[in-house]
Amino acid sequence: MTSIDRTIYRRMKRSYTTKELIEAYTPTEEERSFVSTMTRTAQNQLNLMLWIKLFPCLGYFPALDEIPAPLVDHIRKALDLAADVVPGYDHDRTLYRHHQLVREYYQIVPYGKEARRFALRTLLHAVRTMDNPADMLNATLEELIKQRYELPAFSTLDRLTGTVRALVYGRICRAVQCRMTAEIQHSLETLFEVQLPSHRSAFSQLKLVPQSPTLSHLKAWQDRLAWLRELGAMDALLKDIPPAIVKHFAAEARALDASELQDYTPAKRLTLVACLIQHAQMSTQDDLIEMFLKRMSTIQVRAKEALQEARDAQQKTTAQLVETLTDLVETSVEDKEQDDATAGKHLRDILEKRGGQEHVLEQCQQVAASLSDEYQPLMWHFYKSHRKALFQLVRSLPLRSTTQDQVLITALNFILTQEHRRSLFLPDTLDLSFASEIWQRLIRIKRKKRTKLARRPLEACIFAAVADELKAGDLAVEGSERFADYRAQLLPWEMCEPQVAEYCQEVSLPRDTHAFVTQLRERLTEVVAQVDTAFPTNKSVEITAKGEPVLKRIKGKAVPASRIALQEALRHALPDRSV
User: Fold this and answer.
1) Cβ contact 71:45 at 8 Å
2) pLDDT digits over 182-197, tens only?
3) Where are the domains of the chain?
């Protein structure tokens, strides 16, 4: 049974404040006149007035013994009735007549066959987008109230909700089973078989949760995604099923073990497993994306930390580079009579003694970066150990751009084809408009009067840009839940158009386009006029000679002497105590 506390079903409060009784339950002159006209005895006047005041607040007629005594006393005093007048009926016929009078007074339709059919239609519509019974029940209550129907007992709506859910979910499960071939059903049933030596079924593997984004866990989760994809795509089996129901079925399957699922009917068992597989495929892919984002964030953080460390150790590194440069120049001077090949070999030997060309180049980049706030040149050092795993991860994700700008996707596809290249430079054939100026200076390098792309910073730049675009939503992943294309999650216009009129009425906006523009122009004109009128007295904004508005800093008000004196008195009376 759904908890009534999780719904908007109205109930009487256990206690009322004096303010609540006066504001909500004091009879008006119109109500007094209606009651005096329709009843004769003092008891019936009290009875009818109780129904008139309670029905707008509840939407139904409660039992008389459920009405709190303070509320009865308040209405009794408001009607100037004796204290011994208590609510009650000698005949049920009078009670029913009073109920009908209240319905006619508020123009309410009693709950009957018509209201039940309306509630069923509302529930059938709600079950397509909601999985929580409380949400479905709340949607039904809202529509019943909006259509001015009397509300039935809560248990009636709860049973109706349960019946509709059972019928709809059962129909869905049977439809999914009919779409499954015998081979698919057999492959899903084998997931419940216990495997040796682990003595666990493959079904338990569907419920694993991700661990920290280390390289070993990243590889394990990539293997898990490959295994889940081998189970097959469930989209064709679960088509036309609302995502909320698929998610509900997946959560139900996750909460059960293999033995408990065996007690379900084959249709429901197979449907739950199919939903769990689809959800596991989506969540595993999302987990990998989260690991990728965290890994790239860690690489950037470590590069920034290395930049600070490089600043601290700049003097020693600079001295080593000056010594290397001195040796190179002295050797070049000594070999000026030698041929270029011999002189070049001597220079190369000096670089090898200093750790090699790549090591010296990395030192130069560290010193250059330490002279500014540019941490990008240092990212490669922390990126290279994750290079293989990151390439495999990005290659397994079906990335798509959510905008018309395909520059980053083109660059990503290009760098994926260069995964096994070992050369430091690539031909300059890419549009780097997605990269910042710092990255572009690092990537585009002139070599022998030709501009080339430095492969290492290009890789780090592209992967960092992919991480940023995924966070911003400019890149989406097909088959994902948290990183899906937001446009695919929007309601189509065919579903929105029938609700436009009702929406415009609720927010007081004209439905006609010309009337809407006219109203908006009038409102903006009014606001402009108000701003212009108040501008001469506005001391916070001024307009410069160039016509630019400038917002002034608000000056703080002086602290009153009385407040300072109060603070000193409190500090003196309540000295600080250490615990």
Assistant:
1) no
2) 999 999 998 888 877 7
3) 8-106, 113-179, 300-378, 384-487
